[in-house]
Design a protein that fits this description.
Blueprint: E1 9-10, E2 26-28, E3 36-37, E4 50-52, E5 60-61, E6 74-76, E7 84-85, E8 98-100, E9 108-109
Parallel strand pairs: 1-3, 2-4, 4-6, 5-7, 6-8, 7-9
Length: 110
């Protein structure tokens, strides 16, 4: 859990230095100030099943943002400021069972 740390961005390979990255299956990044997620931010996080990004400041999701998370089952993006999501933002999420986009301002799907 990485809550209330005031991160503004998740850069490419954001978690590359975590010693336990192969074993992480739950990640809570809620209640930060995240505005941007780079396309390769989640590279090297192989076993993630649950990702919580609620209550941040995300406005836009780029193509392939979550493509490295091919076994992800639950993705919570609620309570952000999302208004635009590119067509392939959720590319390669074939195991995804739950996607929470509630309390956003989505008006544009490209």
């Amino acid at each position: 859990t990485i809550v209330n740390k005031n991160f503004k961005e998740l850069p490419n390979f954001a978690f590359k230095n975590l010693d336990i990255k192969e074993r992480i299956n739950f990640m809570d990044l809620s209640k930060n100030q995240i505005e941007t997620i780079e396309v390769q931010a989640f590279e090297n996080v192989f076993n993630l099943n649950d990702l919580i990004l609620s209550k941040n400041r995300l406005t836009f999701l780029k193509n392939y943002t979550f493509s490295a998370l091919n076994i992800l089952k639950n993705l919570d993006l609620s309570s952000n400021y999302l208004y635009k999501i590119d067509t392939n933002a959720f590319f390669n999420l074939s195991s995804l069972n739950n996607l929470d986009l509630s309390e956003n301002q989505i008006g544009y799907l490209k």
